[in-house]
Design brief:
Elements: H1 2-13, E1 22-27, E2 34-37, E3 40-43, H2 57-65, E4 68-73, E5 85-91, H3 107-118, E6 122-126, H4 135-144, E7 147-149, E8 190-192, E9 198-202, E10 209-216, E11 219-224, H5 244-257
Parallel strand pairs: 1-4, 1-5, 5-6, 6-11
Antiparallel strand pairs: 2-3, 7-8, 9-10, 10-11
Length: about 260
């Protein structure tokens, strides 16, 4: 299924794989969810190697097409730990509901991450609706860039008969160059407290920012109010016409273009 997705995207977008690999680092420290399986306690949720609905394997395949090597960071981010990473993705930091002993983002983490971005790193921050993400400490990091994830619920979709309630608007076609039809369900909005910050996706009714970018030093930050590009909403879970897979490709290409290191 994932190979078919990749081949389809290559044909549609005429992408030629890059030769030199760069590293995209996925945080597995602030998000470190586990569940019990027949094999014991295992990690799950937003992992490169997870091909179930909960995983990032489809997005990982798109990164690979664009010349990236995939890596994960299972410890606190420092300049040394991020040294070889071009892109760093933090997704859905744990609450106590998800992890009895969550690793909250601390002041030292904010300092190290922001120094890395300032030097040319590309940071992706993916929140969630306020009931399913730890926002207080995540917002300490967002505030460093003049952004804030709000304690609200946008694009609420009650069931599969109401997909239209999750259609995004105000999509920036300088990032999403294919003008894809984007679906984003149950997200937090983002307040822009930095004049340099730019809205790139808005809620269904157009009233709220749900994805934004801001430059910081030599680097750039992309923020979005939902994990969004996990397999469930990239690989065919959506009705025909929605194009989150194309959006994932567009975003990945844009992120690569932001790399200045």
């Amino acid at each position: 299924m994932y190979r078919l997705l990749v081949c389809t995207l290559l044909i549609m977008l005429k992408i030629t794989p890059y030769c030199s690999a760069q590293t995209v680092m996925l945080d597995c420290y602030f998000n470190h969810e586990t569940h019990r399986t027949k094999n014991g306690i295992e990690r799950f949720h937003y992992l490169w190697n997870d091909e179930k609905d909960s995983g990032f394997s489809s997005w990982g395949a798109i990164f690979k097409i664009n010349g990236f090597e995939l890596d994960t960071l299972n410890k606190a981010p420092t300049l040394a730990n991020l040294h070889n990473s071009m892109i760093y993705i933090i997704v859905d930091p744990d609450t106590k509901k998800e992890n009895a002993n969550p690793n909250y983002i601390k002041a030292a983490d904010v300092e190290q991450i922001s120094l890395w971005v300032k030097a040319g790193g590309v940071l992706v921050m993916m929140a969630n609706d306020s009931a399913n993400v730890e926002l207080i400490h995540f917002n300490a990091l967002a505030a460093k860039f003049g952004l804030r994830f709000n304690n609200d619920l946008q694009n609420h979709v009650i069931d599969d008969a109401h997909f239209k309630d999750g259609e995004a608007t105000g999509i920036d076609n300088t990032i999403f160059t294919s003008s894809p039809k984007i679906f984003m369900k149950d997200v937090s909005s983002i307040s822009l407290n930095n004049p340099a910050a730019k809205s790139v996706i808005k809620s269904t009714d157009g009233s709220s920012v749900i994805a934004a970018t801001v430059k910081y030093g030599k680097g750039v930050v992309f923020t979005v109010g939902d994990p969004w590009l996990y397999n469930e909403y990239v690989n065919g879970r959506l009705p025909a016409g929605y194009q989150n897979d194309i959006a994932a490709m567009d975003l990945t290409i844009w992120l690569k273009k932001q790399i200045k290191r």
